[in-house]
Design a protein that fits this description.
The complex is a heterodimer of chains A (108) and B (118). By secondary structure, chain A is mainly beta. Helices cover 0% and strands 58% of the residues of chain A. Chain B is mostly beta strands and 118 residues long. Chain B has strands at residues 3-7, 11-12, 18-25, 35-41, 48-53, 59-61, 69-74, 79-84, 93-100, 105-108, 112-116. Chain B is globular and about 40 Å long. The chains are: A mainly beta (108), B mainly beta (118).
Amino acid sequence: EIVLTQSPGTLSLSPGERATLSCRASQSISSSYLAWYQQRPGQAPRLLIYGGSSRATGIPDRFSGSGSGTDFTLTISRLEPEDFAVYYCQQYDRSLYTFGQGTKLEIK
Amino acid sequence: QLQLRESGPGLVKPSETLSLTCTVSGGSIRSTSYYWAWIRQPPGKGLEWIGNVYYSGSSYFNPSLKSRVTISVDTSKNHFSLKLSSVTAADTAVYYCATDLVPYFDLWGRGTLVTVSS
């Protein structure tokens, strides 16, 4: 099973700042099989990025994904108040899925 | 547009079987575009994939839960179901159904909290 480790666990930033969230896999994965989700309190997760770098429908272009091999990054270029939430990465390998443990993005 | 809604008991006794249904509206469960997935989230914790099913009945499961999980499709009712047997308090979670575009989850239901307690 591929384990995803997200860092940091909590990120404290101010609106307008740039956020960089990391997701590291225990073994190399195809970027095609890496996705990112946002979860606001009391809500279901929402797909942000799929295929490592493709934005899902309706996702603002301040969200971007990058990376390859074992290291992947979600970048939010300029934080809006609604972006403060928990973010999860997720991978797919041989018909099985795993999620990272999440990064909480909080207002500083 | 496609919508998913989970339903089922909010309280299950230890050792019994948890049963949930996800009703698909705005589209057909026979769609060849999707698998249909179950994912859960214990209170205050992260996400765990449980398994998925295709309209034909083909399915895959999380190895850690495989021995206790059944996921089935009812095309006549346009819904799919989850059964998790021999539950314990560790199975207390919000259970989500989602569309599985392999290799990612596109659309999620709102989730339903299931508590395992006597």
